[in-house]
Design brief:
This protein has about 150 residues and is mainly alpha-helical. It has six helices and no strands. The model has no long low-confidence stretch (mean pLDDT about 95).
Length: about 150
């Protein structure tokens, strides 16, 4: 079980990165609330007539991202019979980090919509979506251990 140390190390790294991304969500919310209080009422930095069209596009892309994450994870976690434990652990780590990075996209869309239009509702709805995606794919050591055990048996 020499690979268990590598698994724990990769898991801890992934956990730190995922936690950092969640901390970024909180920082975005603090920025939103600061701008709302500083520029009361905050009406956005850009007067964009097509904000509703942009809103539809970004909400649609955010929802599409849920499916993209699922497909990308499947692709990144695809294995071959020649994969050793170290290769499998690397695949787990890369999939976790790529997923975490993609989970941040909806909240960034919300931040953009807020900065353009001034509606914090957009930000908080897309923040909620990001939290849901992060929660679904947040690294769990038992899942990693089980996945590695199953893949090594195949």
């Amino acid at each position: 079980m020499e690979h268990m140390d590598d698994l724990k190390r990769a898991y801890k790294t992934s956990l730190i990165i995922n936690s950092g991304i969640i901390a970024g969500f909180v920082i975005y919310a603090v920025i939103i609330e600061f701008l709302k209080s500083r520029y009361n009422p905050f009406e956005g930095f850009v007067d964009l007539a097509q904000i509703a069209f942009l809103r539809y596009i970004l909400y649609g892309l955010a929802i599409l991202l849920i499916f993209i994450v699922r497909v990308l994870r499947g692709t990144l976690l695809r294995t071959s019979p020649s994969d050793d434990a170290k290769t499998l652990i690397t695949k787990l780590s890369r999939a976790s980090i790529a997923t975490a990075a993609l989970c941040e996209v909806p909240v960034v869309f919300g931040l953009v919509l807020f900065l353009i239009g001034g509606h914090s509702r957009d930000f908080y709805l897309l923040l909620g979506l990001s939290f849901i995606i992060v929660f679904l794919y947040f690294p769990r050591y038992r899942n990693w251990e089980e996945w590695l055990r199953i893949k090594k048996e195949i």
